[in-house]
Design goal:
signal; Polar amino acid transport system substrate-binding protein; D-Maltodextrin-Binding Protein, domain 2; 10 strands; eight-stranded mixed beta sheet; about 25% strand; two-stranded antiparallel sheet; globular
Amino acid sequence: MVTLLRLATVALFLFNAGLARAEAPLTLISFDFPPLVNQLEGNQADGYAYRVIQRMFELAGDEFVLEFQPPKRALRSAINHPGTCAFPIDRSQERETSLSWIGPVSVSRHGLYSHPDRPQSIVTLNDARQWRIGSYLGSGVGEYLQGQGFNVHLASKPYLSLLMLQAGRVDLWISDTRAAPLTARDRGIELNEPELVFFTTLRSMGCNTSVPQARIRKLAQALLTLYQNGELADIMALEP
């Protein structure tokens, strides 16, 4: 009888431990990228994509803890560390099998910007091959263009490539067309309209493949609900 009681106690302990592991909050890693994600003090955040993620977790009855890292490191952390996700990252063919995806949490249009004092005449993307282009590590678009033979200089953070444009170290800057004006305004930099809007990407949350698919599906269903009931459109309509 004592042996059976001990076995039952051990089994209950293991069962509860398994539940605790299954219910442990996911670690979400993001980066400062207004208006999609605005990094605040104390690892707090705001922004379009963050509000969508926050509401998605609420609907799914799930929890997360938030951390901030540079974009490329955030992507690597999600790929390499169990229970970890990164957002908002470009979903691409090269990254597809490395992560479990939930999205899109935002749709980004990408433009090429020149310095107001050094405008460049660009009609097609191919015209940009002659110029030095600034982007950031972890940008799916910047890394794609680099792979296609464009002269792309990748900074560690999105705003640093704007500073490279300001300093004349690059001739063009790739940016999300919603993020570009805010990034420039926050740093007191004048910025014209893009010379060319050339690409659209889906930004999603990518999770380590160790995250159970049942959990991924539940979060994805919550996101779908936000699309269907109009909440996502309401979030996107809010002022950044």
